[in-house]
Amino acid sequence: MQRKKHWELVAVCTVPLIMTLGNSMFIPVLPTMSKMLHVSPFQSSLLITVYSVVAIILIPIAGYLSDRFGRKKIMIPSLIIAGAGGIVSGLAALLLGDNAYTLILAGRLLQGVGAAGAAPIVLPLVGDMYNKESDVSSALGIVETSNTFGKVLSPIIGSLLTLLAWYAVFLAIPVFCALSVLLLAFLLKAPKQQGESGTFHEFYGSVKLIFKQKGRWLSAIFLVGAIGMFELFGLLFYLSETLEERYGFDGIVKGSLLAVPLSVLCLASYITGKTIGENKRLMKWLTVIGLLLLCLALVGLAWLHVRGLWGFFIFIAAGGLGIGIALPCLDAFITEGIEKEQRGTVSSIYSSMRFVGVAAGPPLVSLALTWTAPSLFYSLAAVSLLGVLTSLFAIQPKQASR
Prior knowledge:
- Residues 8-399 form the Major facilitator superfamily (MFS) profile domain.
- This is Bacillibactin exporter.
- It is found in: Cell membrane.
- Its main location: membrane.
- By secondary structure, the chain is mostly helical.
- It has a single domain, classed as Growth Hormone, Chain: A.
- It contains 14 helices and no strands.
- The two termini are 21 Å apart.
């Protein structure tokens, strides 16, 4: 990897890191928000879902615009919009107290608009920055690690901010976004590839041709990416609720415990990105193995139920390991299998599908809290098994080669 690119990669990695902080740090705070706003766990989970739903809709548009006008020109304004959303939610909570729920949701929606044009653009940008596929895979592993590292920090930072005020997590978002904007503005040199996508009609035709030729494996990766994020955010929501309601952990202690399985996921993402290189067959089998490990961990959780906190964490960490192995492989498949001119739009559709998983996980798991624990975990294991089978039979390394 070129040495001169290191600082540019650092700047780029702040985007998924900060966008992850802007969403995941709400996980440990949701029970507190539910009490302060006098809303149900389902309603509090919508603070994550509304952010993700609006991003799902707008991400493909942002991807096309980044192909048309340039990655940097879309990312920086998007980060500013995301910061503005945090200000809206924070001021609403500060000024309106327990009557602020609707305006907080509106601010989260605005933050989702910004998120749509920020983090999802990172994957095609990394593909633009490097010429060798091995460098792309390694950089994508670092990007996925920064994303996961944001999830590791999120519960701890969220818990610390709550010590100041329950709404401090909202007001921290514009600060984080401003930092990323400055780093991108001064460190990132926009790749010369940008602006070559032609008219929308020509671009639409080329993307349509891509899906005609590669639709099977692309659709499989979209589905598997959604499953991975659905499982991750669903498990995090369940873990946060369980640690507080069943075991009595809250604040920094709960945040630190939530960081344990996420740290495993982070380390797995980094090692996998360094390992896979250009080997698409290895990417496929690591994806299968990672999702199978997740499935087995969920079956173990269903069997274990509440027979001990340490055993509970071992299985949760094993599931995080599986997700951490799979995600960098999916990122590399998407980025290395699509030509640069269409990479922004195709990878943005993949990001949209990941956001579908993020949006669906917490509310569906919150509705399932009335089930028995074995029923919940067996259901999640069945979803993971779908990901295993999809990866095994629908992802073909030869088709994913350009």
